[in-house]
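From: lab user (bench 3)
To: helpdesk
Subject: output format question, protein + zinc ion

Hello, I'm new to running complex predictions and I'm not sure whether the block I got back is the full result or only part of it. Here's what I submitted:
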Amino acid sequence: MLESYHLSTNREGFTNITSIVEQVLEKSGVSDGLCVVFCPHTTAGITINENADPDVVRDMLLGLAKAFPDRAEFRHVEGNSTAHLKASCVGSSVTVPVQGGRLVLGTWQGIYFCEFDGPRNRTFYVKVING
Ligand code: ZN
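Helpdesk reply: Thanks, we reran it on our side. This is the complete output you should expect:
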């Protein structure tokens, strides 16, 4: 079962999608296996990080902006090379173990859709694998 979800994003930011992924897992009925969350975009990504203090996401965005500033040397005509760099840095998917019908996430972990070139209408996929 491959589920797709759509979301409208702001210019840049992280959206906590953990509860959506948990709903897909529950619907699948899988007790033990793997859950894959995939982003099919080149200027957005998926990551796992702290879900308790919203300043962590804010600081991650600041850190990524510092690590990947816009540069005059960039040649990509669309003008969004920093977004492509950030997307590759965070990655386009995460895989989470499933045990007892639950995601094996740490207490403070959440799954985030990461937008680096919005606002856009985006899609992500969730696949639950039994085993
Ligand atoms: Zn581009």
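A quick orientation on your result: The chain has one domain: 2-130. Let us know if anything else is unclear.
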